[in-house]
Design goal:
Elements lengths: L27 E6 L6 E5 L3 H5 L11 E6 L7 E6 L5 E9 L12 E7 L8 E5 L5 E11 L7 E8 L10 H8 L6 H9 L6 H7 L28 H10 L1 E8 L22 E4 L2 H10 L13 E4 L1 H8 L4 H7 L1 E4 L14 E5 L6 H10 L12 H20 L10 E5 L1
Parallel strand pairs: 1-15, 3-10, 3-12, 12-14
Antiparallel strand pairs: 1-2, 4-5, 4-7, 5-6, 6-9, 7-8, 8-9, 10-11, 11-13, 14-15
Helix pairs in contact: 6-8, 9-10
Amino acid sequence: MLRTRDLDYTLPDDLIATSPAEPRDSARMLVVWRSDERRMEHRRVSDLPEVLRPPDQRAEMPPDVMVVNATRVLPARFLGVRADSGGHVEGLYVEPASASHPAAGRGPLWIVLLKMRRLKPGVVVTLLDRHERDSGVRLRLIEPSGGGSGGGWIVLVESDTLALTPGLVAADLLEFVGLTPVPPYILAARRKAHESVSDERDRSRYQTVYASEKNERPGHGSVAAPTAGLHFTPDLLHRLRDAGVRQHDVTLDVGLGTFKPVESEFVEQHPMHVEWCSVPPATASASADAHAGGRPGSAARGRVLAIGTTAARTLESFADVDEMLRVRCKETNLLITPGYAFKHVDAMLTNFHLPQTTLLAMVAALLMPRSGRGDGPVDEAELRHAVERLKQVYAVAVREKYRFYSYGDAMLILP
């Protein structure tokens, strides 16, 4: 088993990226290979077409499939004022509450996280608009959600000026009162550096260029960005298509649990969060076609490149392509740690992640040369090796001053 403390590392504060690279694809990219631990390159994300499919080899290479998470980030963060005391309130919209709740007939019900003192039923919070003025929208606390274990609250959305119906789509109202859900550690780093960034700027950059306008579940979306996808530009996507990389989508609505630190002694004991994900038939078929050439490493086999851990986790949540075609969408609580045999993903582009998180465990799993071969349980020596290699790669990134976390640089893991 993997000890949580083994996923720790030291990061200087000045390597936490407080704003994205400009242009997006100018971000640095550390390229590593699972099959050759001595091989490492320092590139830019804009180099992806040449790294994935070198011009002098393209004619002989089978097609690669690049799978992106097309979820849309909601402006889920909000500010407010407590009606009874005037105290400052910060919050985050999570998702709609159940339509079967007894209070559902009174208006829209949300599940939110709230940062305020003395939470109790009946407290009213007046929401501020994007210019920090009274929006005319109020949240009335009903009760803790999930029995109080998750820290969320069910709230009733009220207004004297807006027509609110039980079926109101939260995303529409959040466009009026919501702010970009930039991670707290970025906001803290900005305050420490005395940086000021407008919400309009964050709203345009904390969203992938391929985020879908369509939503299979009204009122749902992501409360954090699939950050590896933030590096792409329309021009880069065009050059990848010209190089022979086929782009296909999945959707995983990113929840708060994705970035939650592991608090148990062993990573495998961590109560994994549940997220909704979907694989369209075209993506399932493209994945099957890429792998039609045989086992990993076969010259006739294409590669499936997941853009980010959320795209990888979506694909790996399905047993096989048949299940993707039959089920299409599901809730997943898949935890990937070293020793996991990847069924669909051959390569991954990912950012540099927070210490002691399940995201780091997934990266360690993919860095293992045996990933995806399904050769049986991982032994202790292999586990230690995977963790040490992860730490070595991250040590290089720190030494070379790569920028970390959501707005930071990227790492490309190739077979």
